[in-house]
Amino acid sequence: MVLFHTTLRRKLAEDFREGRAPQSICLWGPHGVGKHTLALGLAQIFSCEKPIEGKGCDECRNCRALHHSQAPDLMVIGDDEDAIGIEEVRTVRDHLTRSPLSLPFSLAILSNMDAASIQAQQAFLKTLEEPRPHSMIILTATAFSNLLPTIQSRVTSYRLTPVPLSDIAEALRAQHCRAHVIDVYARFSLGIPGRIWQQGNLRDDLDEEIDLLRGVKDSVHAPYWKARKAVDTYFLFQKEHTAHYALERLLQGLFTLDDTRCSFDGQLMLKVFRNAQHFGNRELIIDAITLGICYTSQRLGENRKQLMHA
Ligand SMILES: [Zn+2]
């Protein structure tokens, strides 16, 4: 588990030690910023028999049980694919009413709570309103404002912002990453660990994605067909995702590559894409995007920052 957000982790560890940690927490921030990982990290910090510097010791009974997913007192629900439903909320409610068996508390982590239906969120209200002693709840959400106001007012929220690139580089060094790629990976992450890590391991296809992006960038001043082929290949790489996601990744990725031979007009590109979307045809979308990239690459990207964090 690669843990970031050190300041928040240490603060919550200290609050917990001193008995003033909130019973219901919501961690929110952009997709991939590490909300779920931090939630699991907090479960360990709060349960550890001898935590050190905002981290679990990895050795005590509780740390080991959590590490091997063998802690019955912890329930984790919700993922990127399936939104939390009413039935799951009920299971969580039952779980939290039970007395803990080995951890100091019964804990539930509900990921992507803002994707849950209104009915599911409403079903969870009672649990938040009357928290049982020895129970803890950690919610995660991409946008805090997407939660029902009644939920918002019953949790203590912490916003997770992108991680400093120096922290990402340090984590890569700790994982014995080859020196020459650390800088590339760190910049490519844009401070969002989920862009380069998946469940604690570097993504298998990370190098492939970076190579494909380099291919696009190197081809923008080449003949059109060559640039189009490069964009097409990148879109094929992202075939599991929507065209909108692929375009966003493509533009963000291009900005992170090191040479400054071309820059892109982000605002114009978004306009091109919005129009292209109406074609509803993958081939035409790719045509429009290739033209957009080739055309705007000559211009200075005035709204580059805005696009990168859109
Ligand atoms: Zn421990």
Structure overview:
By secondary structure, the protein is an alpha/beta fold. The chain has three domains: 6-159, P-loop containing nucleotide triphosphate hydrolases (Rossmann fold); 163-204, no CATH class; 205-308, Zinc Finger, Delta Prime, domain 3 (Up-down Bundle). It has 14 helices and seven strands. It has helices at 6-17, 35-47, 61-67, 86-97, 118-129, 149-152, 165-174, 179-189, 206-219, 224-237, 243-256, 266-277, 282-296, 304-308; strands at 24-28, 74-77, 106-110, 135-141, 156-159, 197-198, 201-202. Strands 2-3-4-1-5 form a five-stranded parallel β-sheet, sandwiched between helices. Helix 7 packs antiparallel against helix 8 (179-189) and helix 9 packs antiparallel against helix 10 (224-237). The chain is globular. Residues 299-310 have low confidence and may be disordered. The protein binds zinc ion.
Descriptors for this entry?
alpha/beta; 310 residues; two-stranded antiparallel ribbon; disordered C terminus; 14 helices; Rossmann fold; binds zinc ion
